[in-house]
UniProtKB/TrEMBL annotation:
Enzyme superclass (EC): transferase
Pathway(s) served: Cofactor biosynthesis; riboflavin biosynthesis; riboflavin from 2-hydroxy-3-oxobutyl phosphate and 5-amino-6-(D-ribitylamino)uracil: step 1/2
Lineage, uppermost ranks: Bacteria, Pseudomonadati, Bacteroidota, Bacteroidia, Bacteroidales
Protein name stated in the entry: 6,7-dimethyl-8-ribityllumazine synthase
Alphabetical keyword list: Riboflavin biosynthesis, Transferase
Provenance organism: Xylanibacter caecicola
HAMAP family: Lumazine_synth
Protein task: Catalyzes the formation of 6,7-dimethyl-8-ribityllumazine by condensation of 5-amino-6-(D-ribitylamino)uracil with 3,4-dihydroxy-2-butanone 4-phosphate. This is the penultimate step in the biosynthesis of riboflavin.
């Protein structure tokens, strides 16, 4: 969780394994594309910074955050990935839709992690407003995409 004391993009580079022989799948939601695009840019640049080759980073899009679970599941069936990252953004509105989407995605990704041989990294921003999402997708709290890339590299070496 991002707080004033924790920047999502801050980490010790010495503790990150070399990703040059790894292959990553990224599933990104098109909904709130300003935010998810920034998350994707952060994830890809961080993977490449740690050695991942551009041709070993495969990006697929899905319409919205709820579909991230299906997209990640399809990538786990491919079998050629060392880790998969999901990236989405759900911003609270005036209806309970936010709660249903967040719970569904969280449950679905947790279930995939329990049953799959490939780690699926949870990169779903769940914020109260657009400013909070911007703050966590390259703003004052860093970029959740960076954090997800680091988690993917570490879990691929688990």
């Amino acid at each position: 969780m991002a707080t004033a004391q924790h920047n999502l993009s801050a980490y010790d580079t010495e503790k990150i394994p070399d990703a040059s022989n790894m292959c990553f799948g990224i599933v990104v939601a098109e909904w709130n594309s300003e935010i998810t695009g920034a998350l994707l840019n952060g994830a890809v640049s961080t993977l490449e910074k740690h050695g991942a080759l551009p041709e070993n980073i495969h990006v697929k899009t899905v319409p919205g955050s709820f579909e991230l679970v299906y997209g990640a599941h399809q990538m786990t069936l491919n079998g050629s990935y060392d880790a998969i990252i999901i990236l989405g953004s759900v911003i609270r509105g005036e209806t309970p839709h936010f709660d249903y989407i967040c719970q569904g995605v969280t449950y679905g990704i947790a279930r995939l992690n329990a049953k799959s041989e490939i780690p699926v990294i949870y990169g779903l921003l769940t914020t109260n407003d657009m400013q909070q999402a911007k703050d966590r997708s390259g703003g004052k709290y860093g970029n959740k995409g960076d954090e997800c890339a680091i988690d993917a590299i570490k879990m691929a070496k688990f």
